[in-house]
Specification:
This protein has about 280 residues and is mostly beta strands. Helix content is about 10%, strand content about 55%. It has one domain: Nucleoside-specific channel-forming protein, Tsx-like (Outer membrane phospholipase (ompla), Chain C, Beta Barrel), CATH 2.40.230. The protein has a 12-stranded antiparallel β-barrel. Strands 11-12 form a two-stranded antiparallel ribbon. The protein is globular. It comes from Paraburkholderia unamae. Keywords: Signal. This is Nucleoside-specific outer membrane channel protein Tsx.
């Protein structure tokens, strides 16, 4: 209950800052990858994990306010029939999954009105907190709620941004076989970046994120492992290239690698995911 109240409080904080944005960026993205995997989803021909084609629609909001930044992301993931929805239908459809992420990053330089937290490789140091919420309609019927908090470090880059955060992580989830699970507190390491550059007349940006979550106890009889999720992408500013309008339409390619997906051991088929993807993003 306390965890849910924290999530609600974070949403209220986000809403209260809405009237004081110094800047904001809202995007809608579509991306597709052919080789997603799900722990436990295997076939006789693919015992290491069935390749799942997945269409994704994503809304993201990022803003800056007086004391830092907010980030909100809503992602709808639509699997093909290799990852079926939990249904009695004789012609099963692919599963749907919804992910929601919120992060608030407070700037110590802004809060204390100083530049003392700009030194060495750091442009700022702050405090990052937020939550994840997830639900899926497959056999596992996941229902994740996770919170995390800890210090954040902004790395100096010529243009764009690069942030690294470390902290504590607590996850609650649901198992379609055994019921609700409360995992142990563990550590998390995260990084996100967006570095614009150009090759000749082509405006590009190197974007992405990295998430590491430590072992979080037992998923009933199975010990969880350290999971690593890496999602880099190379995007072309199509709006600037074709229409002379920066930061409007982007398109590009990326790669998502997930080791020990959801903390599952490699002995379980589908615990290692590696897929290329294509993406198009519209800023509005």
């Amino acid at each position: 209950m306390k965890i849910r109240l924290l999530a609600v409080a974070a949403c209220l904080t986000f809403a209260s800052n809405a009237q004081a944005f110094e800047w904001a960026d809202d995007t809608i993205s579509y991306w597709y990858g052919p080789y997603f995997r799900m722990p436990g989803v295997t076939s006789p021909s693919q015992p290491g994990g069935s390749d799942v084609g997945m269409n994704n629609i994503e809304f993201s909001h990022t803003d800056g306010f007086k004391y830092g930044t907010n980030f909100f992301d809503a992602l709808l993931m639509m699997s093909n029939r290799q990852d079926p929805a939990n249904s009695t239908n004789h012609q099963p459809q692919g599963a749907y999954e919804g992910w929601f992420v919120y992060r608030n990053d407070l700037s110590f330089n802004k809060i204390f009105g100083t530049d003392k937290f700009t030194f060495g490789p750091f442009s700022d140091i702050g405090f990052n907190s937020g939550f994840n919420w997830d639900a899926k309609n497959n056999y596992y019927a996941s229902g994740e709620l996770a919170i995390q908090f800890g210090p954040s470090f902004h790395i100096k880059v010529p243009v764009g941004f690069w942030q690294i955060s470390v902290g504590a992580y607590k996850e609650f989830n649901n198992d379609g076989y055994y019921g609700p699970t409360s995992f142990h507190w563990t550590y998390t390491i995260g990084s996100s970046w967006n570095i614009p550059f150009a090759i000749g007349p082509i405006p590009l940006s190197f974007q992405g994120y990295l998430n590491v979550i430590g072992p979080k106890g037992n998923d009933y009889a199975t010990s969880t492992k350290t999971e690593v999720l890496l999602n880099p992408r190379l995007m072309v500013d199509v709006g600037q290239l074709a229409f002379g309008k920066k930061n409007w339409i982007e398109a590009g390619i990326g790669w998502q690698y997930w080791y020990h997906k959801f903390g599952a051991p490699t002995s379980l088929g589908g615990a290692i995911q590696s897929t290329p993807f294509v993406q198009a993003t519209f800023h509005f």
